[in-house]
Structure formats: C-alpha cells, structure tokens
Design brief:
Layout lengths: L33 H19 L1 H4 L2 E6 L17 E4 L7 E6 H6 L3 H21 L3 H4 L6
Parallel strand pairs: 1-3
Antiparallel strand pairs: 2-3
Helix pairs in contact: 1-4
C-alpha cells in the first residue's frame, strides 16, 4: 500500500508546488567544503610526486588532521605546526601528517595553500629519506 504524501517528512518544495530538491547541485563549487578542497589538493600533490618518484611515495602513508597534538615529539628540536614526519618503526610504515588548520590560517587563497601543501610534502619527504628538498622537487625554493 502506498503512503500518502503528507505522511512523508518533506514532500513539497519551498513554494509548495513540487517535490523538494537540493538547493544547489553536488558538482557545483559551493558544495565543496574547505576540508574537502584541502584533501583534494593534498591528493593531487601526492599523485604528482608519485608519478616522479613512485619508489619513494609507495611505502609512505599520508594523513591529514585538523590540528597538531599538544604533546611535542621528543626527537624534533624545532616542532613544526604545519606537518610532521614519522619514520618507519617496528613494522609500521613511514607516515607524513599534514595539519589542515595551521596551513589554512597562514595562507591567503587557494594558490598560496597549494604551494604551502607542496612545500610541506616535499620537506617531509626529504626529511624521511635524508635528501635535500631540491632533489625531490626541482621547483622547490626555500
């Protein structure tokens, strides 16, 4: 048996004429959140680096967290609030963690954020492998 339309939670649009639809499409830019855009930028840079250095990128795990933890890591003399690299240890793979809120708060606009993400990834990869950042990405500048 069919239920009556008035038994459904929402059955009319704002004007009372038709069925309710989303206010904007899921493919429109307004639908993207700041954290979703940040994740997409990180993934794009990881793909770009993986094309150039597949052997370096494959064993490393990448993660994004909102804010850094409050406890500092003992082996870092100058802790970075933007990202952190964890070397491989006892069967756990090497990890690079980017912190979204500090990076977003220090940049203005998407272009600056994109460059900041690239710089952090290249610096942390170079730190993990004991190389200079210019070896990982020739376009890198201090």
């Amino acid at each position: 048996m069919l239920d009556a339309p008035w038994n459904e939670r929402v059955y009319r649009n704002r004007h009372g004429r038709g069925t309710r639809t989303p206010m904007f499409g899921t493919r429109l830019p307004r639908y993207r959140t700041r954290s979703g855009i940040f994740d997409d930028l990180v993934a794009a840079h990881i793909r770009r680096l993986a094309e150039a250095w597949p052997d370096l990128i494959k064993p490393v795990q990448f993660a994004v967290e909102d804010v850094p933890p409050s406890d500092p890591v003992p082996w870092e003399t100058e802790p970075s609030l933007n990202s952190r690299a964890f070397p491989a240890d006892h069967g756990a793979p090497a990890r690079i963690v980017l912190y979204r809120m500090p990076l977003q708060s220090r940049t203005r606009g998407r272009d600056e954020l994109q460059w900041a993400i690239r710089d952090e990834l290249v610096i942390r990869l170079a730190e993990l492998y004991g190389r200079r950042p210019e070896e990982i990405d020739p376009d890198f500048e201090w």
